[in-house]
Queue: 2 jobs
Job 1
Amino acid sequence: MSIEATFSLHYPGFALNVQLQLPARGVTALFGPSGCGKTTLLRCMAGLIRAPEGRLLVQGQFWQDGQRFVPVHQRSLGYVFQDAALFAHLNVRRNLQYGLARLAAAERRVDFDTVVQLLGLGALLERLPATLSGGERQRVSIGRALLGSPRLLLMDEPLAALDAARKQEILPYLEQLHDTLEIPVIYVSHASDEVARLADHLVLLREGSVLASGPLTETLARIELPLDLGEDAGVVLQAVVAERDSRWHLARVAFEGGSLWVRDGGHALGQRVRVRILARDISIALKKAVGTSVQNILPATLEHIAADSHPAQALLRLRAGPSPLLARLTQRAVADLALVPGSAVWLQIKAVALIG
């Protein structure tokens, strides 16, 4: 099963033309700069905008094609906006129960108590929305959407209205939902840190068109794309906690292609985690360094060299085993090391972020 979406819309000064086949499991992030069409595409999928020539197939069910258009209230979807939009006169319990009200008991695939536990809402159930923080309100909004037992959950920049502290508060709950529930999520964001923590599949949009669509790590590593992430350029690797060093408060995480020492985040041995490695935090040597403070040194092969956003810099894609990595060097360093595609090198990774 998959999600197939084709939409074409034309407005003065903007056109949306997309054709996508997305996985029916995990989180797909729609990513790109403001005005690229992320929210317009999401609203087309919800049925809030009717694209006359649109086509949408969700897990075997047509919600729109040339012969039919299922109105938004008849689509089995949840929609989470930037603003939590809770019912001010209802407490948290009754806001959540609103998501259950329109479903027959036999159609309820998501359990109330499970959602309350996953989102940490137990202590909030009797409180009114006006007494909640922004992060708490958004968690209630997500819970209400989930309790509608949707076949598809759409999230339109749900953290954009939160400050940094509230954002860090809610991200772990979203990660738990990702790991626990089987509802596919389409997640709109222009924040690369959110995408790195949550997404499995990445759709890059620019000026209403799809630049690329594919698994998160491989898509982030496509340096031939005109995607300027600046200081956030890098990749996210799936890894497993293989060892913990209690003396130095470090953990070794293994991925396809090697292993890395990171700060110990308290994860259990064998637990799956994500690590984010930024291009700016990788240096390159032709021989394995000794007598260095850098703890993570890996053999790799250089695949591709591309121009970076500044003419003094280059962006390099490398492979450590099957895993892609990015490094940012000066053009002079590339020339001094005589680097070309196919070069065997050693990566010195100065910092690794364990992100969940």
Note: The CA atoms of residues 246 and 264 lie 8 Å apart.
Job 2
Amino acid sequence: MFQVLLCGAAIVTLSMGIRHGFGLWLAPITMERGWTRETFSFAMAVQNLAWGVAGPVAGMLADRYGAWRALIVGALVYAAGLALMAVSATGTAFAGSAGLLVGAAQAGTTYAVIYGVIGRNVPADKRSWAMGVAAAAGSFGQFVMVPVESWLIGHLNWQNALFVLAGAVMLIVPLAFGLREPAYQAGHGPKQSATEAVREAFGNRSFLLLTAGYFVCGFQVVFIGVHMPSYLKDKGLGPEEIGRAHV
């Protein structure tokens, strides 16, 4: 149980931490590419929608082929998306890399996959606590990674910073092996197709209310995360102050 919780928390810390710092790239990318801020914001919106749409798919693939395989694929896609963000020369290409690729990768490297492993490997009386720890890891990732990303941009320039993060996200691959589960687990429990699971979820009022709550939460957090760093820079704050304020 400890190994699952440790590896899962580390993965969420890294994947969510990188995501929370994307707003730091708005100003340098739009200024160098000559784009409007709307171009960058659109890509971030696509990213979050792609994450939401791909979440059930990532969970289904993790259940069928193993969470550790889904995490490895997600890490590879995440790294590719970050690297392509650095070289995307058009708004469309940027929406594809920072939006579609990174969004889909986040679905495969965050809660949709990690919670499933925790739920299967942690005793019921400790399950809520363990999932809370994993959720806190995402917030801790923001606390740690945003200042780090601000420092990377300030010292390496924004393109090299993205390449460094593309390499860092590959740390998910060895961590994923810590979440390998016995093959017999796939054969236990009630049989239910993905379509049946989706139908059951959308027929549950509590699930719909929870989803609406997360939608509101995600909308405001991403809006602030994307636009606040540039707003602070407009007001004359330097990279270090922006990193601290963003956290």
Note: The mean pLDDT is 84.
